[in-house]
Amino acid sequence: MYNRHAMKVLLKKLIGAETTAEKGELAAAEIISAELGQSDIDCRIDSWDTNRANLIAQIKSTGRRKALLFACHLDVVGPGETKWKHPPFSGVESEGKIYGRGSADMKGGIAAIVTAARQIVESGVKLEGNIILFAAAGEETDSCGAKRFIRKWDGIPRLAGVVLPEPTDFEVVTAHRGMLWLKVKTRGKAAHGSTPELGINAIASMKTFLNELDTYKIQVEPHNLLGSCSMSVNTIAGGKEINVVPDECEIKIDIRTLPGQNYKEIISDFGKIFAKLKQGNPQFEASVSLVREVGALETDSNCGFVKDFCSAVEVSETKAVGFTTDGPHFAALGAPMVIFGPGKPDICHKPDEYIEISDVEKAVEYYKNIILKFLV
Ligand SMILES: [Zn+2]
């Protein structure tokens, strides 16, 4: 029978697969496939671009009940510049914790659902609805894996719900804001630094845009759980040499949107700001482009699925969170969605990320309860 030791080994192997944007997800997908194969679970790896990969596993049933989709992500963010207590991809175990990039976000959740699925299969319990296990590429960068899954895979049966085993420290999360990343570029004309009057300084143009942005407010009513829509200019780049008038300057803006908000209105507002600035100065030249867009998530906390889910995991109320997930990409499947998993959300994307081994074990029990509640 599957045991605690094997689950820890799996988690350490997944951390060691180092699934950053550079290295891709294929190694982790192969580890999970081998693991599920030991319990004869049907599993498919969809890979592209040498090392990118999605994994799709399905445990078939009588089909009398709707299926459950557990949607994970294989990739992790990089370790960052700060020195770690333990090397970030070594999966060191110390004082009941496993350290490593991705331990909480979200390889702990993956190890737990893979273990739960294997235990359910090996117990011989008769399933009335399918368990679908999906693990995506690129959640941290552009959601390429989730989008590809929705586009390509037509074998998805009717779903009772979607569960994202992200680190929520066992809170049932039903809402998060969306994400809109924009790039604004101003264009000028290069000239020798000693004769700036012959050029158009793109950094100076950006300054006028940024001043204007200070007075711009996105028109949307605050949400009762998620608060307001936020905007932050987080990168700026422009100019190459100290003696050359810069012909380009670029900023990247991180906007967090609310349910029901149309991001195209913000882009159109930017266009209006450009037009206004051009009116004041005909040499002003700027454009805006979309870097990434993920919608907000809002599942009705009073729907039957959420109520049954909460009772299966013994949680009395649902929560909203600050981070964003691939969840809104699964909205196309037309099923209610919750985020629920082991690990503390506030240690994700930081040095010395870890997960408590006891939390992964607790998650295995919860996921089994969820499966038994909805699929048996
Ligand atoms: Zn995550």
Could you characterize what this model shows?
The structure is a single chain. With 376 residues, the protein is α/β, with parallel strands linked by helices. A hairpin with a 3-residue loop joins strand 1 and strand 2. The longest helix is centred in the N-terminal third of the chain and has 21 residues. Zinc ion binds next to helix 3.
Helix content: 25-40%
Portion of residues in beta strands equals 25-35%
Integer-rounded radius of gyration: 24 Å
Number of helices: 8
- Which structural class fits the helix and strand makeup? alpha/beta
Mean pLDDT: 96
The main β sheet shows up as: 6 strands, mixed
> What is the topology, as strand order, of the major beta sheet?
1-2-6-3-7-15
Low-confidence stretches: none
- Amino-to-carboxy terminus distance: 21 Å
Taken from the alpha-carbon principal axes, the silhouette is elongated
**What ligands can be seen in this structure?**
zinc ion
Number of DSSP E strands:
16
**Secondary-structure element pattern, one letter each:** HHEEEEEHEHEEEHEEHEEHEEEH
